[in-house]
């Protein structure tokens, strides 16, 4: 393994952590309807749990309403129950073979709670990025010990990995700030 491989591996892993953060932040609702909010809601389909998006078509009707149209008629009640039982605090309404999911307005207290969740997600991602940095530095120390690279190469690559870490931590802070602003706007 070379220094460039260590650096590339660290960058890839940090990018994956950032992508995971983006996905997790998208699931946190802001009072606006978006189809991705139901992504982690699981519904029982022929004995196995599957995401709602695999058994129904989820569309945004307006800023505060989702439409869920199951592919099979018997799934209406199951999907409605799964959405109601989820931790999202939504109350779906069945209209024939279509389900409407109105998004309730967020209270000030709930907005503050959601910003705490957003900050927590950001911190978890920063920890993941720092763990990647630690792993990369450990890998570099092992390469020096095995005499595959010089100590100068190790220091240069550690500096590169630190710059990468700083860059990703900055992006995480920016994403968290954007999401907090989005949640706090009424």
TrEMBL record:
<keyword id="KW-0648">Protein biosynthesis</keyword>
<dbReference type="GO" id="GO:0043023">
    <property type="term" value="F:ribosomal large subunit binding"/>
</dbReference>
<comment type="function">
    <text>Responsible for the release of ribosomes from messenger RNA at the termination of protein biosynthesis. May increase the efficiency of translation by recycling ribosomes from one round of translation to another.</text>
</comment>
<comment type="similarity">
    <text>Belongs to the RRF family.</text>
</comment>
<dbReference type="InterPro" id="IPR036191">
    <property type="entry name" value="RRF_sf"/>
</dbReference>
<feature type="domain" description="Ribosome recycling factor">
    <location>
        <begin position="21"/>
        <end position="184"/>
    </location>
</feature>
<keyword id="KW-0963">Cytoplasm</keyword>
<dbReference type="Pfam" id="PF01765">
    <property type="entry name" value="RRF"/>
</dbReference>
<dbReference type="GO" id="GO:0002184">
    <property type="term" value="P:cytoplasmic translational termination"/>
</dbReference>
<dbReference type="InterPro" id="IPR023584">
    <property type="entry name" value="Ribosome_recyc_fac_dom"/>
</dbReference>
<dbReference type="InterPro" id="IPR002661">
    <property type="entry name" value="Ribosome_recyc_fac"/>
</dbReference>
<protein>
    <recommendedName>
        <fullName>Ribosome-recycling factor</fullName>
    </recommendedName>
</protein>
<dbReference type="GO" id="GO:0005829">
    <property type="term" value="C:cytosol"/>
</dbReference>
């Amino acid at each position: 393994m070379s220094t460039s491989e260590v650096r590339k591996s660290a960058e890839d892993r940090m990018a994956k952590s950032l992508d995971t953060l983006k996905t997790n932040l998208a699931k946190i609702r802001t009072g606006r309807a978006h189809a991705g909010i139901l992504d982690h809601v699981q519904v029982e389909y022929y004995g196995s749990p599957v995401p709602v998006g695999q058994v129904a078509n989820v569309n945004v009707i307006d800023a505060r309403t989702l439409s869920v149209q199951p592919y099979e008629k018997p799934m209406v009640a199951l999907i409605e129950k799964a959405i109601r039982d989820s931790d999202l605090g939504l109350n779906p309404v069945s209209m024939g073979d279509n389900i409407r999911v109105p998004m309730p307005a967020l209270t000030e207290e709930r907005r503050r709670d959601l910003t705490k969740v957003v900050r927590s997600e950001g911190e978890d991602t920063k920890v993941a990025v720092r763990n990647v940095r630690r792993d990369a530095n450990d890998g570099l120390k092992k390469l020096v010990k095995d005499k595959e690279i010089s100590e100068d190469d190790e220091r240069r690559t550690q500096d590169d990995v630190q710059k990468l870490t700083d860059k990703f931590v900055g992006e995480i802070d920016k994403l968290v700030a954007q999401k907090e602003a989005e949640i706090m706007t009424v």
